[in-house]
Design a protein that fits this description.
- The protein is α+β, with helices and mostly antiparallel strands.
- The chain has 2 domains: 113 residues, Hypothetical protein ph0010, domain 1 (Glycoprotein, Type 4 Pilin), CATH 3.30.700.20; 71 residues, Hypothetical protein ph0010, domain 2 (Dna Ligase, domain 1, 2-Layer Sandwich).
- The protein is 30% helix and 24% strand.
- β5 and β6 form a beta hairpin.
- α1 packs across α2.
- The longest helix is centred in the N-terminal third of the chain and has 21 residues.
- The radius of gyration is 17 Å and the shape is globular.
């Protein structure tokens, strides 16, 4: 599925509204699903990334599709602003100068590999998001992380560390998946102007 320009604007407006509701009421925006076109009501996974002064300010999402896209975006936008444990809660002073980036995820695709070298050979720089997991250790990088880590070796090392593993750790029990994303963004000062049907805050 690819979102139209109008659908992208609606999703960015939902993310903005959810952060605004969080600042005003302490809870996420709850979209009235009857008001949205059917493509935005499909069950899809999403991530919401917030940046302030071009620096990461929050990023929360889900890898598995478990709710409608409009709800996924609303919940993740609120969580990125107020529940990312790496950052203090977002303030009103920061809100107006945020950049809001949405990533709508495709399905996870399991990667068969027989060694770390084999897995590295399957990493395509700049293209896919990746997940690795061993038991309860799990981490993911969105495709945008390739901008900071364009080398596959460094990408995998940092992904292992994000999962809670040592950078030089390897085990034949490590599982891996790739996924694609459709990503788009807007400044908060622009997203506030995007029309949102059926606003029901609280």
């Amino acid at each position: 599925m690819s979102c139209s320009t109008a659908e992208r604007m609606v999703l960015l407006g939902i993310a903005h509204k959810s952060i605004e509701c969080g600042l005003q009421t302490g809870s996420a925006f709850k979209p009235d699903t009857k008001a949205y076109p059917s493509p935005l009501l499909l069950t899809r996974a999403s991530f919401v990334t917030l940046k302030h002064d071009e620096k990461l300010r929050g990023c929360i999402g889900s890898l598995e599709a478990c709710t409608r896209l409009v709800n996924s975006v609303a919940e993740n936008a609120y969580a990125a602003a107020f529940r990312d444990p790496r950052f203090p809660v977002l303030t009103s002073a920061e809100f107006g100068s945020l950049t809001i980036e949405l990533s709508v995820l495709g399905p996870l695709q399991a990667i068969q590999h027989n060694s770390e070298a084999d897995l590295l050979a399957q990493l395509q720089a700049g293209r896919d998001g990746w997940v690795i997991q061993e038991n309860h250790a799990r981490g993911t990088f969105l495709p945008s992380v390739w901008d900071q880590l364009p080398d596959a070796h460094q990408f995998l090392k940092h992904l292992k560390m994000k999962a809670g593993l040592a950078a030089d750790y390897w085990s034949d029990n490590i599982e891996a998946w790739r996924y694609s994303t459709e990503s788009f963004s807007a400044r908060a000062e622009d997203a506030v102007q995007y029309a949102i049907p059926g606003i029901t805050s609280g």
